[in-house]
Write a structure and sequence with these properties.
The complex is a heterodimer of chains A (about 650) and B (about 575). Chain A is mainly β and about 650 residues long. Helices cover about 10% and strands about 35% of the residues of chain A. In chain A, the strands form eleven sheets. An eight-stranded mixed sheet of chain A has the order 16-17-15-27-26-29-30-32. The longest helix of chain A is centred in the last third of the chain and has 10 residues. The longest helix of chain B is centred in the middle third of the chain and has 17 residues. Classes of the chains: A mainly beta (about 650), B mainly beta (about 575). The interface between A and B is large, with 54 and 51 residues.
């Protein structure tokens, strides 16, 4: 392995040109300089849209020049044009500014100015007054598609069921970049055919997820009050099927819902389209969750590898019924049986991952004596999870519920026999507590504003119970607390951390016992509250600006900038939490990144490596070559910071 | 089509006469009756895994076994209908003559009775398929293909949606399955993320134009001239004109934006209609710029303005200049309604847009029309209006919001756009069973059934809306001339006064199918004079046709229902 270039540390500031003063063509001399707001801008944008592979022009592509993001207010409203038969587009009277320039065309992935690869990122088009860029080219890559047929064991098409497509990058913790569900849902048509369109190159899993929503028949027969109890039982809205009974099929002592698709494809429609059947001996047969081609877990699945423009057909499923087992038992709390609790059955591969919400095997409600039953469980390894949470606890000033949250989790294996006496014990949850520090002189905020704007939140380890994020309740003196939580790793999550223009406050840190919780997430232990978390906001925005240059010192825009904690060891030890910042330089190699104060390594790398650099060997290698920077609160310019791209191993 | 329908059905209408009979209440016992049967295809083959639903005192769903059988056990006594469905087939209720028309035969089931002989055929579903191409001849993927059929709405035929929708795949292909027999207008609309869609629903759309070859040539000359002379291009070469703004919109088969000019696609049971292709074309669009001024001619502050194309509405709060702009609007009729906040003044304007910009529209605020009155409760004590939220609303809803009834029973609809309206009420679900609308009197006429007119600036007061806890009910037995129960006929009730034959009105209820014991029931009827007739086949949609009702009237009998009356009226066929 050879490493070519080394990063150059901070150099003298003198040579640096301020951003956005760019001129590829000399603007008209005197008239442009005098051009006030009343005059029509002289600049225009002429360009072409080309197929990135064939270089052929793309006619009838829709090119949109967005509203300017720089300058004083919007000087140019968004405008769209369709390209000519030779792929040309033209915008007139365009003044100085930084413009988003995007393009879409049938059969192609959406694209934009500065994009260099199908999964690449676009950059704004920076124009000086009167500028008329020549040779402007937008390149588009063809979209990939995946399609197939779903049939049952008799060869009949299965229509109206959900097929899920999972972006493999996003279910691997090392490459995951967000807590957004990495799943797309298609539905088979009347001929059993499905299709996913508009896909980026990458590796995908295709799955048909079977979920069974079941109720004890005693609840289904009961009155409206009983249904209200179910709705109020703290069942997460993500298991929407449990919120009302809907049409059901009776299977022994249970009612099985036949509609009520999950939001994300966990599909008990399968139970309606291809119903489970009960033989004379009471044995139930039905269809298990499948991953293409016929695997029972993601690990055994065959990934679909797509290049730009691939039209992958024949991703077909043949659904075969298997003998399903019954898993029945009782949910016990500290004070006896728990009734009206939602009980979830999750495959081991989905538990605690963001497949929890899409690949749940079954959900039910405990009866009056705490009894529960899953009537249709394929053989496999499972985790049972049960909880009851106060769901309305997101925004507002309601106090935290007095009743402690109870949670339960238990592993079990279903093989050749039904399990009839599973006792699941629920325990009291632990809470995360702490305080919010507003370090600065900006106008202090009302406590509830932290929930609506600054979103003091944690990424919870139980996605099914909480969704992607768990909000905390902020008290009058800026103390905060969560409700009782199951044990696990909680990552502070502040999605709008730098978008504080409305409040004047910027997220700075989440610390506990001298540890940075963004580098070393909080490990919540059973029966032990985490009490001394300090979340600090400052009243100044902190940004870092610099430039990327090549070995000869010329601007280098074809790179990306990555910024990661100087505490590389702890960061790696905790699984590289997603706190690193990245940035794409605009024209002239200039980049700006919003950042919280602290010690960092910064490096420029090949833009194509943005998706896979966050792995231990890569980070260790980068750390030996990167530039170390200490960023103070409120810093907003480091004009001498010049980076030469590093070859990433 | 609507003409030919008439004689067929009327030929089998029966003139009925009244029979007097003592009412026998239906007693119910718990869970000892049962209904079983078999679902088959037209060739007699059993349909396995069909979904069978039973509705009545209890509701259940079952799935047929491999021999097409189902068995509902432990049913309480009462009246039931049974419906079966299966992908690839048309849903049919037991005793239904035609898919998509009429209703199932209600089965009267006594305690411990077993009906094990239900056996019916599901016809194969028809399909409509084709390809959607965009302006450039490329497949338009994600386009939404819709079916509409002609139905009478307030006495006039209109296209109304039905029968689901399909989305085109990446080759632009679509297939609509499960289409019931009928005549359909097929149309397509572009997907929401497609190129150039109109700015009706959003405020963030952008105008879309075609880049012209003249623009490109001009720009290339400018660039090469600048490069050659190293000086700015001569300022006197004029920029070529911009092309018209364009957008995709709805296109009907075989290729018209006008639904009235669509070629209807005729579908019979089991048909596979292929090749119903459409080419979507970019249509010229225009913008509307309206300036709202106060009575003094000055720009009005605190004004909200709504724009509606009849299907969807978008609105905006106007800035200090009082200017409202919407771009990329397709040809069509748009209504603009400006109101101050709170709505003391208003202005209303209808604009017919046809590819020509409207930039000089001035809307001058004047008094707004409003309606006020009170709600009266009859029967049980009135509910507490501070906790029970009752609202009065105008139909069609248009741009007027419902008005909440105050604690003392009064209400005011503060700002009504000019037009023809009926009045209705909304009642919380919990109270819906307890209270029904009896009447809404405006100037001595019941506006719950008959539309009234309101002009700009007009004030209508003293409206009395009456809710009753004792709605009238009409039920009875349908008997043959010999006095035997006549099962499976459609009993039709409709207002004697043709002015009340309005779509969605309360006085032309859906037909009631006579049950196995000959029972029929209409619940929740407002008091009044009605016509009754019995037919062998009719669909609720036929009753929207005033010609049909007029012809039926001649073969009907009169029945008058008093306020809150539980009228039992047996009917006997004439000899």
């Amino acid at each position: 392995m050879t490493r070519i270039a080394l990063a150059v540390a901070i150099t003298a500031a003198a040579a640096f040109a301020p951003p956005l003063r760019l001129a590829r063509q000399t603007p008209p001399a005197s008239s442009a300089q005098q051009a006030g707001p009343a005059q029509t801008p002289k600049g225009f944008v002429l360009g072409r849209v080309l197929d990135a592979v064939t270089n052929r022009p793309i006619p009838d592509a829709l090119v949109t020049l967005g509203a300017t993001t720089g300058g004083r207010g919007v000087s140019h409203p968004a405008e769209s044009v369709l390209t000519t038969s030779n792929g040309y587009f033209f915008f007139r009277e365009v003044g100085a500014g930084a413009y988003p320039l995007t393009v879409q065309a049938p059969g192609y992935l959406p694209g934009g100015y500065g994009q260099r690869r199908p999964r690449g990122v676009a950059a704004p088009l920076a124009l000086a007054e009167g500028e008329r860029p020549a040779d402007l080219t937008l390149r588009l890559w063809r979209e990939a598609t995946v399609s197939g047929m779903v049939r049952d064991e008799q060869g009949d098409p299965v229509s109206g069921i959900g097929v899920t497509l999972i972006d493999r990058v996003q279910i691997e913790p090392a490459t995951r970049t967000s807590s957004v569900l990495p799943v797309r849902l298609a539905r088979t048509d009347a001929d059993g055919a499905y299709q996913f369109v508009g896909l980026l190159p990458g590796e995908y899993l295709v799955s048909i997820a079977s979920r069974v929503n079941q109720f004890p028949a005693s609840i289904g027969d009961a009155d409206a009050a009983a249904l209200d109890r179910i709705r109020n039982s703290g069942v997460s809205s993500l298991s929407s099927g449990l919120r009302s009974l809907g049409p059901t099929v009776r299977l022994g002592d249970q009612l099985i819902q036949t509609t009520g698709e999950g939001n994300w494809g966990g599909s008990n429609a399968l139970a309606g389209v291809l119903p489970m059947t009960m033989g004379g001996d009471g044995a139930v047969s039905g269809y298990p969750t499948l991953f293409f081609p016929s695997a029972l877990s993601p690990a055994q699945a065959t990934p679909i590898r797509l290049s730009a423009g691939d039209d992958r057909r024949g991703v077909d499923f043949l659904l075969k019924p298997v003998t399903l087992r019954r898993v029945a038992g009782r949910l016990e709390g500290p004070a006896g049986p728990l009734s009206g609790f939602a009980v979830h059955l999750l495959p081991v591969y989905a538990a605690d991952s963001n497949l929890e919400r899409t690949h749940e095997t079954g959900v039910t409600i405990t009866g009056p004596d705490g009894a529960f039953a899953f009537v249709a469980v394929p053989p496999g390894d499972y985790v049972i999870k049960a909880w009851r949470l106060q769901q309305s606890l997101v925004i507002g000033t309601d106090p935290l519920p007095a009743e402690s949250t109870l949670w339960a989790t238990q592993r079990l294996t279903v093989a050749g026999q039904s399990l009839t006496n599973v006792v699941v014990s629920a325990k009291t949850g632990s809470t995360i507590r702490g305080r919010i520090v507003l370090d600065g002189t900006a106008t202090p905020l009302q406590p509830q504003r932290f929930q609506t704007i600054l979103s003091v939140a944690f990424e919870p380890p139980w996605p099914l119970a909480f969704g992607a994020r768990l909000s905390v309740r902020v008290g009058a003196s800026l103390d905060f607390a969560t409700q009782g939580l199951p044990p696990g790793t909680y990552v502070p999550l502040l999605p709008n951390q730098f978008n504080a223009s409305a409040t004047g406050w910027y997220f700075e840190s989440a610390m506990r016992g001298g540890r940075d919780l963004l580098v070393e997430p909080l490990l919540l232990e059973p029966a032990t509250d985490a009490t001394d978390v300090v979340i600090t906001f400052a009243d100044r925005r902190t940004t870092l600006t610099g430039s990327v240059v090549d070995a000869a010192g010329r601007p280098e825009a074809a790179a990306a900038v990555v910024l990661f904690p100087a505490a590389v060891g702890p960061w790696i030890d905790h699984g590289l939490p997603a706190i690193a910042s990245t940035s794409i330089p605009a024209s002239q190699g200039i980049f700006t990144v919003d950042i919280r104060p602290g010690d960092y390594f910064i490096a420029a790398i090949d833009e194509a490596r943005l998706e896979d650099w966050r792995k231990e060997p890569t980070v260790r290698a980068l750390a030996t070559q990167a530039t170390r920077v200490t960023i103070a609160r409120g810093e907003n310019s480091r004009p001498g910071l010049r980076l030469i791209p590093i070859r990433v191993p | 089509m609507r003409i030919s329908l008439l004689p067929v059905v009327i030929a089998s209408a029966f003139v009925v006469s009244a029979v007097t009979r003592a009412q026998t209440p239906v007693s119910s016992s718990q869970g000892t009756a049962s209904i079983a049967g078999t679902i088959v295809a037209a060739d007699g083959a059993p349909i396995a895994r069909a979904i069978v639903s039973i509705g009545g005192p209890v509701a259940f769903t079952l799935v047929t076994d491999d021999r097409g059988r189902f068995d509902f056990l432990a049913l309480p006594a009462g009246q039931y209908t049974v419906t079966a469905s299966k992908t690839g087939f048309l849903a049919m209720a037991y005793g239904q003559a035609e898919p998509g028309r009429g209703s199932g035969l209600p089965l009267d089931l006594k305690a411990a009775e077993r009906r094990a002989d239900l056996h019916w055929i599901l016809p194969r579903a028809a399909s409509i398929a084709g390809r959607i191409l965009d302006q450039g001849g490329q497949p338009m993927r994600g386009a939404i293909v819709l079916l509409q059929r002609r139905r009478f709405v307030d006495g006039a035929p209109q296209l109304v949606s039905c029968c689901g929708q399909a989305t085109t795949d990446s080759n632009g292909l679509y297939r609509l399955r499960g289409v019931p027999p009928g005549e359909y207008a097929v149309s397509a609309i572009p997907p929401g993320d497609y190129l150039a869609i109109p700015e009706v629903f959003t405020t963030y759309g952008s105008e879309t134009r075609r880049t012209t070859d003249e623009e490109v040539q001009w720009a290339l000359r400018e660039l090469s001239g600048a490069a050659a002379s190293r000086a700015p291009a001569a300022a006197n070469t004029r920029t070529p004109a911009r092309s018209r703004t364009v957008s995709y919109g709805r296109i009907y088969y075989p290729g018209t934006p006008d639904g009235d000019r669509a070629t209807m696609v005729v579908v019979r049971a089991g048909d596979e209609k292929n090749g119903i292709d459409l080419s979507m074309t970019l249509q010229p669009t225009a913008f509307i710029r309206a300036r709202v001024v106060g009575p003094d001619g000055q720009p009005a502050a605190n004004v909200s303005l709504s724009l509606s194309d009849g299907w969807s509405t978008s609105g905006a709060r106007l800035g200090a200049d009082g200017v409202f702009t919407r771009r990329n609007l397709l040809a069509g009729r748009y209504t603009l309604s400006a109101k101050t906040v709170p709505p003391a003044l208003g202005a209303y304007q209808v604009v017919d847009l046809n590819g020509v910009d409207v930039s000089d529209l001035v809307m001058t605020l004047g008094p707004v029309a409003h309606i006020s009155g009170r709600v009266v409760f009859e029967g049980d004590p009135a509910p507490d209006l501070t906790t029970t939220q009752v609202s009065v609303l105008m139909r069609p809803l248009g741009l007027t919001s419902p008005a909440r009834v105050a604690a003392d029973g009064t209400f005011t609809v503060p700002a009504v756009d000019p037009g023809r309206y009926r009045l209705s009420v909304t009642i919380p679900a919990a109270s819906r069973g307890a209270w029904t609308l009896k009447s809404a009197m405006v100037d001595g006429r019941d506006a719950a059934d008959v539309p009234f007119e309101i002009a700009a600036g007009q004030a209508i007061g003293d409206v009395v809306v009456t809710l009753t806890s004792r709605p009238a009910r009409l039920s009875g037995l349908l008997l043959t001339a010999d006095g035997a129960p006549a099962a499976g006929y459609y009993v039709v009730a409709f207002a004697d006064d043709p002015a009340m034959w309005v779509t969605g009105g309360r006085r032309v209820p859906a037909p009631a199918r006579s049950s196995t014991e000959g029972r029929y029931t209409f619940a929740g009827l407002p008091p009044g004079t009605y016509r009754l007739a019995a037919l062998t086949a009719v669909d609720a949609s036929d009753l929207a046709n005033p010609d049909f009702l007029a012809a039926l009237k001649a073969q009907s009998m009169v029945v008058t229902i008093a306020d809150g009356e539980n009228k039992v009226q047996d009917l006997r066929f004439g000899r």
